[in-house]
Amino acid sequence: MEIYREFTFEAAHRLPQVPEGHKCARLHGHSYRVQVHVVGAVYPTSGWVMDFGDIKKAFQPLHDQLDHYYLNEVPGLENPTSENLARWVWQRLIDQLPLSAITVRETCTSGCVYRGQG
C-alpha cells in the first residue's frame, strides 16, 4: 500500500543555471506543494500503513527551513529547481520514513516526481 501526505509552503527562489535572459533567472516565488509518499503493509490491528501524523512530524523540520525563505540560501539548494528540491527532501527523510516518492509542484501545472534514483 502507498499513502501520502501533502504539505504546502511559500518560498522565493531564482535559478542561477538557466540560459541568459530566461525568466526563471529572476527572483520570483511559488506556492509549493510537496507530497511525501510512503509504502508498506497495512497493519491488521490499526488498519493503516502508518499514522499520517508521523509523516507530518518527519516533514516539519524541513517545512521550517523552507517556508517563507529564499531557497537559494538553504544549504544544498543553491540551484533550487523542483528536481533538486525533491531530491533534497528525499535525502532528509529517507532514514525516517519508508519513502516511495517525493512529488514537488511549484505551479498548478508543473512539477516532478522523485523516486530515489540518480
TrEMBL record:
Protein family (similarity comment): Belongs to the PTPS family. QueD subfamily.
Top-rank taxon, per record: Bacteria
Catalysis: reaction(s): 7,8-dihydroneopterin 3'-triphosphate + H2O = 6-carboxy-5,6,7,8-tetrahydropterin + triphosphate + acetaldehyde + 2 H(+)
Annotated GO MF terms: 6-carboxytetrahydropterin synthase activity
Alphabetical keyword list: Lyase, Metal-binding, Queuosine biosynthesis, Zinc
InterPro entries assigned: 6-PTP_synth/QueD (IPR007115), 6-PTP_synth/QueD_sf (IPR038418)
Lineage of the organism: Bacteria, Bacillati, Actinomycetota, Actinomycetes, Micromonosporales
Tagged with keyword Cytoplasm: no
E.C. number: 4.-.-.-
Pathway entry: Purine metabolism; 7-cyano-7-deazaguanine biosynthesis
Protein name: 6-carboxy-5,6,7,8-tetrahydropterin synthase
Keyword Transport: no
Name of the encoding gene: queD
Cofactor requirement: Zn(2+)
Cofactor note: Binds 1 zinc ion per subunit.
Pfam families given in the database record: PTPS
